[in-house]
Amino acid sequence: MTRPNPQDPILVIDDEESILLSIDTILQLAGMNNVITCSDSRKAMALVEQCTPSVVLLDLNMPHVNGEAIIEELTAFHPRVPIIVITGRIDAETAVDCMKSGASDYIVKPVEEERLLNAVKKGLRTTSQLFPGEQSAQGYQLKNPEAFAAIITASPKLYTLFTYIESIAGTGQPLLIKGETGTGKELMAQATHVSSGRTGNFVGVNVAGLDDNVFSDTLFGHTRGAFTGADSDRPGLIEKAAGGTLFLDEIGDLTPASQVKLLRLLQENEYLPLGSDSSRRSNARIITSTHVDLWEKQANGQFREDLHYRLRTHRLRVVPLRERKEDLPPLVDHFLSAAAKALNKARPKVPGELITLLETYPFPGNVRELQAMIFDAMAQHKNTILSLTVFREHIARMRRIDEKHPPRAIDSGMAFSTKEPLPSIKQATRMLIEEAMIRANNNQSIAASLLGISQQALSKRLKSLSKEDE
């Protein structure tokens, strides 16, 4: 099958189906076959979260969510993704406004083929995705690579985040880190602290589930007699982080009352310990993280708008493991050595098909899930070669869970275009088998597990397809 070009998809967002069809056709004829179209702006960010695009083209004037709001969110959490605005207005003011809001280029309707291709190719060059696989982590020069030593990676996407962290580390302004569970948000916060050169401590706390009183006591401390059992003064974490960094994990779960107190700390650099009548000053840098959509919580009235804007002075999104599968080999190597040492076992040989097997799995638990799989496999390991049984059983178990609770389909993310006739069952079967074999690197055992059938059944179908091709 044809390899995707570019490696990450080009996302086109416009409420006019005719525009989507025109742009898609132009790109496809130019050899860019990895294109996703979206006619409902409400679903745009969900598509972005599924797979970070290489370039985004979007209309400014759309119902539901306008283009400017999408640009704001894209630049917040995907600052390196080029944005090309499609506009029906041709004036200098519109062009300037687009550039100020974060767009890298703009195209005037009706879309001209040469202008469109030049803009897209320019955007792809900035992310080195015009020819997949050319970009590597070796091209990044970090000022302080030791700050990122705890993050095991060979991914250009993470090295892009490292350079961003180095550029904002010294400002002292709040940083909001967004990412799925297990992606390493706290490691990014620690790297930011080290890069900043701050002499104080890095102090972290998970604020999920803390009621207002516990939150206040934990962060701000209390004076003697503040409440029953308060026999002496106790400093809060904000005092322990003086001159350093205070990291608040899962900030999206903070109660409304606690949000007000955190806002005051950010605005005034002051806080009030429980039982005290006088405010105290703080010079700690605040870094927060979340795995939830704060924009959605803000829209639902569950998160303060003013606090949200304060927290996201600087912001970044940690890429999930499924979007950086080049990290699988170094992570497996690192966790395997760590597990062997922790369990006092000799490090086993790794079968070649392990990485291929792991590449077929989306890792909803990200790096943390991979670490748990490897430690479990090492705990049960007995021979000189690492058994794949634990990995296969875990992946099969998670796939059974997914089958019982399938994700809600996104219209513009369908496997088949609504503009074309559906393939026959025979054609669809061939497509699925060919795709599974490509993903499994021609390993029939792995391909069969992807398809949910036995290896014998897959072998029989492959022989049947081979006879049809003769």
In total, how many beta strands?
14
Shape: globular
Q: What is the total number of structural domains?
A: 3
Query: Which structural class is indicated by helix and strand composition?
Result: alpha/beta
CATH architectural name of the largest domain: 3-Layer(aba) Sandwich
Proportion in β-strands: 5-15%
Note the main sheet: 5 strands, parallel
- Fraction of residues in helices? 40-55%
CATH homologous superfamily identity of the largest domain: P-loop containing nucleotide triphosphate hydrolases
Explain how this protein is built.
This protein has 470 residues and is of the alpha/beta class. It has 3 domains: 10-126, 3-Layer(aba) Sandwich (Rossmann fold), CATH 3.40.50.2300; 139-319, Rossmann fold; 323-410 and 423-469, Orthogonal Bundle (Helicase, Ruva Protein, domain 3). It is 45% helix and 11% strand. The protein has 19 helices and 14 strands. A 5-stranded parallel sheet has the order 2-1-3-4-5, sandwiched between helices. A 5-stranded parallel sheet has the order 7-10-13-6-14. The longest helix is centred in the last third of the chain and has 16 residues, at 389-404. It is globular and about 85 Å long.
